[in-house]
Amino acid sequence: MRLKPFEQIVTEHGPTVLRVCRAVLGHHDAEDAWSETFLAALRAYPELDPAANVEAWLVTIAKRKAIDQHRSAARRPLPVDDLPERPGHDGIPEPADGELWEALKLLPLKQREALAYRHLAGLPYASIAGLLGNSEAAARRAAADGLKTLRKSYQGDTP
Amino acid sequence: MNTQPTPAEPGGIVGALSRNDDDANRRLHARLVQAAEQQNLLDVAYRTIDTPVGPLLLAATQLGLVRVAYVREDHQAVLNRLAEKISPRVLEAPARLDDAARQLDEYFAGGRSQFELALDLRLSSGFRRDILSHLPDIRYGSTASYGELARLAGSPKAVRAVGTACGTNPLPVVVPCHRVVRSDGTQGGYVGGPEAKRTLLTLEAA
Question: Which of B19, B27, B35 is facing A39, going by the closest CB pair?
């Protein structure tokens, strides 16, 4: 097996990595994290085992970049029990699924990560546990809990 | 317990979080290209241009133009080979090829008879490379036979090798292998196909 042109890696995995970064970091910081992730990936790419799981490799780099960002920004959102009230409609169209992304921001970091790695990147729980430094069972629980909270706040909101 | 991944239910939460954002993807690609260029990580930049002989793939290393490819060579296959032979750090990065694209536009418009571009000839070696270095000696608007070129390269018997060198020219159009024709005056083969060769020779004869 040989390494594909990196352009193909960006085309095939760029959108997924962006979704993961957005889910974990929010829209604002996601693009910086994505850029750092792909630049680091481009640097290391010639040494990558052509048989490696590229998506898992990229998510691992993104996770590291996200940690750096959290450290530098020191603005880890705290888990809260009550969600803020939905702003009233005043005729101005809201961004698509804006509330969902807001609700996501309020989840504990580990749940956001577990949910993103599982449901957006499609990684197996064994890899997610490795990334999160917990057990497979804990990773599965975190993803499920996160999704459950989102369902409550997001779909419960829809008339 | 259920170990299957939740399918991305369209309209559901995962579906909503999975929505594509083409604008952001384009923006991030441009940003990556710029950072890669600044940090010397862009080993092969490429773009395609439209020409009278069809879309041409142009690829350049930091040293210069390294590949021009016709559609019939299969652009994706050409890129795969560049990744293998030069470096897998290959990105679609038009800016590095602005000069080449402009000069090719001028050439196809009849306003340029020779190219002033840095060339990276690493994809050709030995005798083939020798031959390629003699091709620009055939002036715009004229032709030479395979035999004449062999003599020019100092190996008058290597007529067939000249044919091979032209057939494997990594930089067609820019390195003018289309100006090499059969000694009986017929066109002979061409990496871009007979029609492309005719188009180029007609353009240059005008």
Answer: B35
